């Protein structure tokens, strides 16, 4: 013990006492803490960071969490835990939140009061809650952080995630400049950015139209693709009128010869005969594609508007943004009715119903059909894509589906930049999830007809997340013109061509090979090569359609038959609302019901026509996407993923038994076999260890709360007690 005192005088009382030596103090000093950063991508720069940050779990009672470092880069907001060594985390991305993924930012002060507006400059942010577009919720406690660092990380995230920005500030351009040429990989997906791609597609479907190349320099229209297909009878003079508005753009051809077209609408003033005659010529050209038959479907009259879709989804997603367990159990009381009242599930049902009506026109009536809306790039993309998936098995394969998205959405000039609001523009409307609506409809088909699809629901979930990953150019632009002009302007070496941003279909940029195996459906059955020969039957001679004028059913002289029919149709086209003339006098629902019943009587063919089930509970909630981050609803060892994995294991055993039978001489004709390619789910050796949220949620983060929380349990017990008392009273009264 060391004492401090005077010289020869009486020693004063020691003012400081040390029980360890300075050498021990020096030896016990902690080494300087190493700054922890995730593995940065090429072109990624750290803007700010704060440490230590406590990341809370959703358990609001215990307030448990883990300490780590919170960073904000030009690509993402990332949390790196102090508990896990960097070398054990593999990619070390931590909890990745891309800047485009974040859409809501809530801040609380030390008194747990929400901080808003001008209060942010004076208040100390002690807690941040981040809501993401993939429905994740992150809670970060800044109490243990220096006030300066806390303010810095808060203002950095708020500025880079929520403030309006220019397109040039998106990380995709920094990544494209910095990545090495070795990282560029070949694409198997048809991108529909060349004349050859469109010619190949028209040849595959045996279409009878012509390819337009006049828009290679976007002189025709900046809202149309460089290449597209229109009816052969459209003249070059009409092609350059109204900047492509009203042009019937080819989507797909049926094997009978009829075709599906889409178009944007033109306002038709009653006194303006130029536009009226132009539209008549366009409809006439579409009708000539097959037997001079045409039906028009104005989607703006029969489907919800883009604003209705946005408002419905804004209400719908709130039921899955769970900040804590208490909020979950409170919302659980009326959860199903609340979700149904948002109208989101009904919108999905209406889109599928409309697609079935279009399929009926092509498959049963063999008539051309033209779908229209104001811009022709929103609901037209949804319906045309669904129709092709229902009719063409090629689009149910992985590469075929990706090609369909490229053709109808990317090359079709869907406004991803505006609809997803990647630039956080305040004057823009809230993000309108049109593409997510399409994926929702596809998921309904996948879960109803699983063996017909080569890709899994995990693939669809990952694709919906990838829309907000600012590394790829696929979902970043409003049109082909904007994509080409921007990439050319941002190129550092114009002589070498535009920037080469990766497409989202290069999944190796995001996932390793083992993870990509989860994109494939283990229950998918490949189509037999001999199938076409075995099932080839004489097709009945095509009968003329009821949509033709009545003159078609008379017996005029053979020479002038089609001429008279054309004149009759042209007279009928000269009306203000053409879509009303095209509507069938019979009830569409009744006709569709007959079409459904006829399809149900056929033998099930997963490589033929597929129709969705729309009655009652057939339209289900996409549980993997919406419930994957909520621990309370995860099923340990259960759920669809466990069932699928078990079926895949059984299929493997069946294949092994089949091989043994072949070796023993019990030969079976190859044509009678179903060529299954079972693939047990990667990383899933024991289905008991899987949760229903696999592979997105970890099985380590389990909440051990009772299935029914205490407050609700007490209320239910009280209700049961009162009910039992009423029963006893009733029994006494009956005895009396």
Automatic annotation (TrEMBL):
PROSITE patterns: PPASE_MYOTUBULARIN. The keyword Cell division does not apply. Residues 192-553 form the Myotubularin phosphatase domain. Coiled coil: none annotated. The keyword Cytoplasm applies. Keywords: Cytoplasm, Sarcoplasmic reticulum. GO terms for biological process: phosphatidylinositol dephosphorylation. Its main location: cytoplasm. GO terms for cellular component: membrane; sarcomere; sarcoplasmic reticulum. It is found in: Cytoplasm, Myofibril, Sarcomere; Sarcoplasmic reticulum. Belongs to the protein-tyrosine phosphatase family. Non-receptor class myotubularin subfamily. This is Myotubularin-related protein 12.
């Amino acid at each position: 013990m060391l004492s401090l005192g005077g010289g020869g005088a009486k020693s004063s009382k020691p003012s400081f006492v040390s029980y360890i030596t300075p050498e021990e103090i020096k030896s016990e000093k902690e080494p300087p803490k190493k700054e922890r950063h995730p593995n940065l991508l090429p072109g990624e720069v750290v803007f700010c960071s704060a440490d230590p940050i406590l990341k809370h779990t959703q358990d609001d009672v215990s307030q448990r969490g883990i300490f780590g470092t919170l960073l904000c880069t030009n690509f993402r907001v990332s949390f790196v835990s102090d508990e896990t060594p960097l070398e054990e985390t593999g990619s070390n991305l931590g909890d990745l939140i891309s800047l485009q993924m974040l859409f809501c930012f809530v801040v609380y002060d030390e008194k747990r009061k929400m901080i808003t507006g001008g209060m942010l400059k004076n208040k100390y942010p002690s807690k941040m809650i981040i809501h993401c577009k993939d429905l994740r919720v992150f809670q970060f406690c800044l109490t243990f952080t220096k006030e300066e660092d806390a303010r810095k990380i808060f203002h950095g995230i708020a500025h880079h995630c929520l403030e309006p920005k220019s397109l040039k500030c998106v990380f995709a351009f920094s990544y494209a400049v910095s990545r090495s040429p070795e990282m560029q990989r070949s694409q198997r997906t048809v991108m529909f950015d060349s004349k050859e791609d469109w010619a190949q597609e028209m040849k595959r479907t045996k279409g009878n139209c012509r390819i337009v190349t006049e828009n290679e320099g976007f002189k025709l229209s900046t809202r149309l693709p460089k290449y597209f297909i229109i009816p052969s009878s459209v003249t070059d003079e009409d092609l350059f009128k109204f900047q492509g508005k009203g042009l019937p753009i080819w989507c797909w051809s049926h094997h009978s010869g009829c075709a599906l077209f889409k178009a944007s609408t033109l306002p038709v003033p009653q006194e303006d005969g130029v536009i009226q005659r132009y539209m008549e010529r366009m409809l006439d050209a579409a009708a000539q594609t097959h037997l001079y038959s045409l039906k028009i479907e104005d989607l703006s009259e029969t489907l919800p508007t883009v604003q209705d879709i946005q408002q419905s989804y804004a209400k719908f997603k709130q039921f899955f943004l769970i900040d804590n367990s208490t909020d979950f159990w409170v919302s659980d009381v009326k959860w199903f009715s609340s979700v149904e009242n948002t109208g989101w599930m009904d919108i999905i049902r209406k889109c599928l119903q409309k697609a079935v009506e279009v399929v009926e026109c092509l498959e049963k009536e063999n008539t051309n059909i033209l779908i229209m809306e104001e811009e022709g790039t929103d609901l037209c993309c949804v319906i045309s894509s669904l129709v092709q998936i229902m009719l063409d098995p090629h689009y149910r394969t992985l590469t075929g589906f990706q090609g369909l998205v490229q053709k109808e959405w990317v090359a079709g000039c869907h406004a991803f930049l505006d609809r997803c609001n990647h630039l956080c523009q305040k004057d823009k409307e809230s993000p309108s999830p049109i593409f997510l609506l399409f994926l929702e409809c596809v998921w309904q088909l996948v879960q109803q007809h699983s063996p017909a699809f080569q890709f899994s629901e995990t693939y669809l979930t990952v694709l919906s997340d990838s829309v907000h990953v600012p590394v790829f150019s696929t979902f970043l632009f409003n049109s082909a013109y904007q994509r080409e002009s921007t990439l050319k302007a941002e190129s550092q070496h114009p002589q070498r061509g535009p920037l080469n941003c990766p497409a989202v279909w290069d999944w190796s940029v995001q996932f390793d090979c083992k993870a990509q195996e989860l994109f494939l459906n283990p229950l998918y059955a490949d189509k037999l090569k001999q199938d076409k020969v075995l099932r080839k039957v004489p097709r009945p001679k095509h009968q003329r359609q009821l949509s033709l004028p009545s003159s078609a059913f008379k017996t005029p002289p053979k020479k002038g038959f089609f001429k008279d029919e054309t004149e009759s149709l042209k007279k009928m086209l000269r009306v203000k609302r053409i879509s009303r003339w095209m509507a069938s006098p019979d009830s569409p629902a009744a006709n569709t019901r007959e079409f459904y019943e006829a399809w149900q009587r056929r033998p099930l063919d997963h490589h033929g026509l597929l129709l969705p089930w729309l009655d009652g509970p057939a339209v289900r909630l996409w549980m993997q996407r919406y419930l994957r981050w909520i621990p309370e609803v995860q099923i340990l060892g259960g759920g669809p993923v466990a069932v699928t994995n078990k079926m895949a294991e059984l299929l493997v055993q069946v294949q092994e038994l089949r091989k043994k039978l072949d070796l023993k001489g019990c030969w079976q004709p190859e044509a009678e076999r179903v060529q299954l390619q079972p693939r047990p789910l990667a990383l899933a050796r024991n289905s008991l260890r899987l949760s229903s949220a696999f592979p997105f949620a970890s099985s380590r983060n389990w909440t051990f709360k009772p299935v029914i929380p205490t407050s609700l349990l007490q209320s239910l017990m009280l209700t049961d007690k009162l009910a039992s008392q009423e029963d006893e009273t009733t029994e006494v009264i009956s005895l009396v």
